[in-house]
Amino acid sequence: MNHPGHLIEVLLFIILLFLVWISFTNFGMVKRFLIGRPMRTAELSGQHTKLLWFIALPILSADLYSSVSYGPEAGMTELMGLGDGAKWYIIPITVSTVILLAILITSYIMGILAYPSGGGAYAIAKDNFKPRWVSLVASSSLLIDYILTVAVSVSAALEAISSAYPIVAPYETELAIGCVFLLLVMNLRGVAESAKIFAWPTIGFMVCMVIIIFTGLFECTRHGFVQSTTPPFGTVPKGISTLLVLKAFSSACSALTGIETISNAVPIFREPKQRNAIKTYIALGSITSFTLLGFAYLLYVKGISPSPQNTMLSQLTGLYFGHSIIYQIIIWFTFIVLILAANSTFTGFSQLAAIVAADGYLPRVLTNRGDRLGYSNGIIALAACASILILAFHAHTNALIPLYAIGVFLSFTVAQIGLVRRWLRVKGSRWKIKLAINSFGAFITAIVAVIFAVTKFMGGAWIVLVVLPILVFFSLTIRKHYNFIAQELHIDISKEFPEIREVTTIVLVSGVHRVVNSTISFAKSIGDNPIAVYVGFDDESINKMERKWEEWGYPCRLVVLKSKYRSVLEPLNRFIKIVEEKRGHEGHIHLIIPQFIPKRGWHNLLHNQTALQLRLWFLRHKDVVITTVPYHLKK
Amino acid sequence: MNHPGHLIEVLLFIILLFLVWISFTNFGMVKRFLIGRPMRTAELSGQHTKLLWFIALPILSADLYSSVSYGPEAGMTELMGLGDGAKWYIIPITVSTVILLAILITSYIMGILAYPSGGGAYAIAKDNFKPRWVSLVASSSLLIDYILTVAVSVSAALEAISSAYPIVAPYETELAIGCVFLLLVMNLRGVAESAKIFAWPTIGFMVCMVIIIFTGLFECTRHGFVQSTTPPFGTVPKGISTLLVLKAFSSACSALTGIETISNAVPIFREPKQRNAIKTYIALGSITSFTLLGFAYLLYVKGISPSPQNTMLSQLTGLYFGHSIIYQIIIWFTFIVLILAANSTFTGFSQLAAIVAADGYLPRVLTNRGDRLGYSNGIIALAACASILILAFHAHTNALIPLYAIGVFLSFTVAQIGLVRRWLRVKGSRWKIKLAINSFGAFITAIVAVIFAVTKFMGGAWIVLVVLPILVFFSLTIRKHYNFIAQELHIDISKEFPEIREVTTIVLVSGVHRVVNSTISFAKSIGDNPIAVYVGFDDESINKMERKWEEWGYPCRLVVLKSKYRSVLEPLNRFIKIVEEKRGHEGHIHLIIPQFIPKRGWHNLLHNQTALQLRLWFLRHKDVVITTVPYHLKK
């Protein structure tokens, strides 16, 4: 039996191992190659040039607009269980989605009016709610949804490609992980989200969608607006239930994720910022609504069914253009725009994580700027989480959809209620209208969130509903830890001052050789009377050591310990306990351990890492100062 | 769409994460629970009670005898490409295999006569060849084959189970990894290979095989020794070639692995050891031959074809006994014996690795005895390698077979040539007969090794033929490294003696707080004039630090450094370079870094691991002594 597939896999595995090896041994070089030279903090300012609104539109819309490629399909997939008779529901569902979109955009415009410097859900919640868990619900659910955006967008991108080229279908998961890795590297290099070059693919994709819709409508003028393929409208198929329709509706709502991007990005608009941002919202809302409605109508007219091998967008395009060059262009634009949607999420995630971390609710490392000034740790965390999701769900968009969007709608709701509280507090011009809009918005988004949670619960939403409170709880715990530390570390400088105390120096020796020589030399240089400790596993080696030490001229006091369990740690720990008891907890105990440093990293595998193990254990369990004296091998 | 499969996978994943978490936070406890209390070195002696030969027989035969369950199947699988007409070849192929078995056993008996204290291929080669790479070829190919034995046996065990219970078939890989993990834990606990309890399943399996064969033969007396299902004998199907027959032969030879176990274990026999070991060899050879021949004949008579869902042993058993309780018993005995075969390999691998490592050709850690006196590191390495193989080949026995057995035959050949050289050198009683036997054995095993390499090359043998020289090369490099170190570390105790040198103490501080207080306190206790170094990312923080230091009363000299690239490492390194240049390479440079030690391990994630990063970098790149002063947080 031949297994050519296995051969290729084994070869790829070997290449992968080799690359991992290279990366470990020449980490700095590989990093420099992938990421580029480090940048100074001073280069941070002046990154953003202010954008005209019609240029900002495509740049900021990749996330929302790209969702049209999977939203209607997700809705239709839910309906398919009931046969062709249920297909017509896609029309009212899409209309409801578009109405919801209009409500959301109106509410978001209120947000822009309230927070002209860019107010994400977290900032709005923080400003308007006293209990911090409310804003943490907003931030955590957004963070979760950003992770899902990457997983869903990249999976959908790969599904687009494998619809056109079925040969890549078996490798979807691997290729998706590869795309996430590329996005990771690009973002660590620091691709500015607002780079104008990102405008073109989105414009291209918009044009593609418009062409498809007009081609379809034109075709309808010739073959009729109800065709032989069109399923009957208005029939109520057996087994349909409100719950099922709502389930399809919530799946279709995944097309609405990414709506928050513009309101976060108000500062990058040219003056008047708010006006321009609002203009962009209206334009984006219009084109998205048009696309959703047109696309859903054509899917319905042509009676297209979802298929795991071929996305509905690809089926529809194939129907009008065959597998021509136009088809190829449309598929590639879909792919690129979905990848761009994932890309813009990287900035969103890492910035939000940094803001929350700066408030002390997430690990501080998330606020560190990397070599290229991006929040590298957040970027890496996002890539890692998204990869795990892609792996767990085998890059199936429709399997990920049930987890998706619930976070967005939760954070929408929190933000809207926050705005309601703000209008009640601040008032201002025409506040009653604004209040009404946001109250209605809050009401609707809350209902959608509940519909989501209920209809998608078993399908996967429960995962989000379990992870979310855990995340909020951890955030609060983290803040408590930081508060505690600040308290614990605080000193009264008028009362506390470094004192000189007695130091007992213990040097671990393993024989009489050059490493021991240099270690004892250091120990004697920093204080008198170090104690050398030798741990032997049998009487023979202990006697030999004592003899040799004598011959060497007894450079310092030697204590020999016998280990019954072949461990250095246990007898050494016993000895240190005795020293502690002898002198109370007054002085410092100072343990000096020599360590080999081979020239080549892998040579470390050839030496017992006793030094490392001892260091880790004693640091964790004892109040012992630990010194490592390196001995650099020449080879 | 519901994805119950995904739900279960996600749940299992969460449970796995939880277990990993528990293991990391309570490593000691989990280890104690799984592995048991540590044992004293003194408990090592007297582990072995000497065994009667007929008790040793089943204990030592699991490895060889269990192979009958997959060897004939592997051979038949190769023949299947040519249809039923080629099936009769299984008879001459099995006869050749049995003849080869007889030759090998005779040769191995010569080995026992030459090395009564137990001579593995490595020991024999070491004793009889000057160039060390020869014995390394023997040891490395055996080590590779031990890894394959675990992978193949466990995969075959799972295939037996999933033949009987198809419901577990999709989880074969996961379950196989689970079995390897169980074997790992068992072996870390230190299951003595010679435990008498292991005799019973093998005896049970032998009885099962004998029952099947006699049932089959009895059935033949009623329905004829050539039945309607029997394919025609002696026809030469179109497309058959010598190469193909040889390929099937080499696959069938995988039934011969594990033959070396008895000769390695001579010391555990009761006196007269050699006689008893030889008796055991003859008995084992007889029963294995009988089983192979009988099994192959029945497979042929019944015209059974290999199937990926149902092993041939399971098909044959099903034919005679249906899915009765007898069938279940046979399947479970097959499973247990195959797992026992993998189990005995753990001892073989770790002991061989320890012997080679003691000679300096493998990392020394392999010679360390763990808590339970087994060579834990070798055991862990074997489990890891076998798991990777199982993953890479999706636990398909037939995909692993082409890699298998080539190592065994290579080491057989080396050992036999070694024995030939020994007889020529030592001579002794009847040495000419022994010489003749081993020469013939060497000739035959060499030919089989070549047949293997040629016929299986593309199927996977190339992997072994690539890995083997790499392993040998690495072994030689490792020895060179150890030799070099021994030389480099050696001191002339009459000339070299620890000297007192000047020490420059640098303390890294991050502000004025309790941690800095305790660190400076230690620094001042071991020497006068430490230099505190503060690295700031902007002017503001630097000015603030200088002011605070002043207010505190200037406990020691303070140097402030500004980092343009938000890194502590780079300015600190610059500073240390300046210190080095100032004082030449005479004195010690001593860098003191404080480190937070939180009470809970996961709290480490909340602190920048600057201390750790600095320590790793400086130890590797600079001749700087590094001290960690722990600060234990109360929470």
What's a quick, concise take on this entry?
The structure is a homodimer of 635-residue chains. Chain A has 23 helices and 5 strands. Chain A has helices at residues 4-25, 27-35, 53-66, 71-79, 90-114, 121-128, 132-164, 172-189, 199-223, 242-252, 261-264, 273-301, 312-321, 325-358, 376-392, 397-400, 406-426, 431-455, 457-489, 514-526, 539-552, 569-583, 610-621, and strands at residues 503-509, 531-536, 557-562, 588-597, 624-632.
| Largest beta-sheet characterization of chain A | 5 strands, parallel
SSE pattern of chain A: HHHHHHHHHHHHHHHHHHHEHEHEHEHE
Question: How many domains would you count in the coordinates of chain A?
Answer: 3
Note poorly predicted spans of chain A: 1-5
Mean pLDDT of chain A: 87
**What is the subunit arrangement here?**
homodimer
Number of separate helices of chain A: 23
Distance between the amino and carboxyl termini of chain A: 46 Å
List the defining traits of the structure above.
homodimer, about 625 residues, mainly alpha, Amino acid/polyamine transporter I, Rossmann fold, 3 domains, 5-stranded parallel beta sheet, 5 strands, elongated, disordered N terminus
Q: What does it look like?
A:
- Two copies of one chain form a homodimer.
- Chain A is mainly alpha-helical.
- The first copy, chain A, has three domains: 7-36; 51-307 and 316-330 and 353-482, Amino acid/polyamine transporter I (Up-down Bundle); 503-632, Rossmann fold.
- In chain A, 64% of the residues lie in helices and 6% in strands.
- Chain A contains 23 helices and five strands.
- Chain A has helices spanning 4-25, 27-35, 53-66, 71-79, 90-114, 121-128, 132-164, 172-189, 199-223, 242-252, 261-264, 273-301, 312-321, 325-358, 376-392, 397-400, 406-426, 431-455, 457-489, 514-526, 539-552, 569-583, 610-621, and strands spanning 503-509, 531-536, 557-562, 588-597, 624-632.
- In chain A, strands 3-2-1-4-5 form a five-stranded parallel β-sheet, with helices on both faces.
- The radius of gyration of chain A is 32 Å and the shape is elongated.
- The relative contact order of chain A is 0.12.
- Mean pLDDT of chain A is 87; it is low at 1-5.
- Chains A and B meet through helix 1, helix 19, helix 20, helix 21 and strand 4 of A and helix 1, helix 19, helix 20, helix 21 and strand 4 of B.
- Chains A, B: Its main location: membrane.
- Chains A, B: It comes from Neobacillus massiliamazoniensis.
- Chains A, B: Keywords: Membrane, Transmembrane, Transmembrane helix.
